[in-house]
């Protein structure tokens, strides 16, 4: 729950550590009018959450696992995901703005018809994920792998950069 904050946590309004959160009700105490402002989650497991049309603003997720995490039509703005695993989740029609992913894994995640703008992906892998009609603008991908994923009609602008990115068995 909201524990004593260390100096590095002081920029966040809410700090959650070492929690196994099942269903969205377990997060209600941290949400304000459909928004999670400046939430810092460390070593947490998010299970079977339905948080569609939710705004995540300036949040940080570190060493977290998201399983059956439903965030359809949600917005992630200025967030950080580090050492996270997102499994069997639906994030369609979501918007990711100025969000950073480092050492993350997307396994069987539906990101179709979502928009990703001004984001960075470092050492992040996508496997068995749906990336159809994904809009990618001004993003940077480095040391990433996209495997067994549907990338049909992936829309990438000219300002997006790829460095050491591998596409394997994509549709």
Automatic annotation (TrEMBL):
Keywords: Chloroplast, Plastid. The keyword Chloroplast applies. Transmembrane segments: none annotated. This is Pentapeptide repeat-containing protein. It comes from Fistulifera saprophila.
């Amino acid at each position: 729950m909201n524990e004593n904050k260390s100096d590095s946590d002081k920029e966040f309004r809410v700090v959650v550590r070492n929690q196994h959160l099942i269903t969205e009700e377990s997060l209600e105490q941290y949400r304000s009018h459909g928004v999670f402002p400046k939430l810092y989650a460390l070593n947490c497991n998010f299970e079977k959450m339905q948080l569609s049309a939710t705004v995540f603003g300036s949040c940080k997720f570190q060493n977290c696992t998201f399983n059956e995490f439903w965030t359809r039509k949600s917005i992630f703005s200025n967030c950080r995901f580090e050492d996270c695993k997102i499994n069997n989740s639906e994030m369609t029609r979501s918007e990711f703005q100025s969000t950073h992913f480092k050492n993350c894994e997307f396994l069987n995640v539906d990101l179709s018809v979502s928009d990703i703008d001004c984001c960075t992906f470092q050492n992040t892998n996508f496997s068995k994920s749906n990336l159809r009609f994904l809009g990618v603008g001004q993003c940077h991908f480095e040391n990433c792998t996209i495997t067994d994923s549907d990338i049909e009609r992936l829309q990438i602008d000219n300002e997006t950069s790829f460095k050491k990115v591998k596409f394997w068995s994509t549709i």
